[in-house]
Amino acid sequence: MIGNTQFDFYNKCVIVTGATRGIGKSIATHFSALGANLILTGTNPQEIESLNDSFTKNSRAKYYHVDFSNEELINEFISVLKKYEKIDVCINNAGINRINFIYEVQLSDWDQIMKVNLRGPFLLSKEVGNIMKKQRYGRIINIASIFGVITREKRSAYTASKAGLIGLTKATANDLAPYNILVNSVSPGFILTDLTRKILSDSEIKELESKVPLGRFGHQDEISKVVLFLASDLNTYITGQNIIVDGGYVNI
Questions:
Q1: What is the pTM of this model?
Q2: Which of 12, 52, 163, 231 yields a CA-CA distance of 20 to 30 A from 244?
Q3: Residue 222 pLDDT > 80
Q4: With contact defined as beta carbons under 8 Å apart, do 131 and 86 qualify?
């Protein structure tokens, strides 16, 4: 606690997309521990059904099957959100990556990356923003990437989507600031997730670790803690910012 401001989310309604694994799961776990009522999404319908079945009727979490490249599923989810009178926090975390040289990128891959990484957060921010405006309170955090700030080979589509997400964050922050809605993005560096292990070989991971000033990849909860602060009532004046959490990598 700092002054009269408590670091908790009791009775606050929090959306976390892409919450079944990786950084999203870590974020959802932390919010749950701090008392939040959770609206969570994932792309595997069987997994979503199993997760919901494992909860009691008094559970404060509800999972929804949402693939942000699927128009029908997005519309169904937005219809669900319209029924909520109060949404306090929205974490746009769902994201995908396909690596390839620009001259080999398939248009279908480009379109899917843009739909999930950029169009999805836009649609949710628009819908949630309308709800938050009425209550004159809200926090929106977009999970971007250091590759929205810097880049490397084979990242043209991913970098374009995350740079766009950082731009969307800044513009949305300006639009919603008069309603006491703070909008920021968090850009993780190299974090040990399933996606990271899928994209990078063991040798690539070791090579990249040697280039990070802190000498290691980050952990998922190191991203979650930054997100929790930005979403909390401890944050009263930070908006339109992109917070880089990368162990110093972009500075080298």
A1: 0.95
A2: 12
A3: yes
A4: yes
